[in-house]
Amino acid sequence: MQPIDFKVLYDVKKLFFLLMKGLRVLELSEALNIDSSDLLAVCAILKFKASSRLSMLSFEECKKITNYYENNN
Which pTM value belongs to this model? Predict the structure, then answer.
């Protein structure tokens, strides 16, 4: 049995927690193929606290934004 490389384990744990937080506005806009400024406008309509392309959105907020685009297009 090989010894555990704790640095790799720490990096995996750090990545996991970053993924659990959600997505940045920029990442979601790229995934939805829309301009990030348009996405920020939708965030304002939905009263989310996103103020820039680097703002983090929870997965719940991402789902609500996706539903907004599905229902309004």
Answer: 0.71
Let me know if 39 is exposed, middle or buried by CB neighbors in 10 A (0-12, 13-18, 19+). Answer: buried
Q: What share of the chain is helix, strand, coil (3-state, %, to 5)?
A: 65, 5, 30
Terminal Cα-to-Cα distance of the chain (whole angstroms): 55
Query: 17 pLDDT exceeds 70?
Result: no
Q: Coil, helix or strand for 5?
A: coil
Overall residue count recorded for the chain in this entry? 73
Are 23 and 56 contacting, i.e. CB atoms less than 8 angstroms apart? yes
Biggest distance spanned by C-alpha atoms of the chain: 56
Domain residue limits, the chain: 20-72
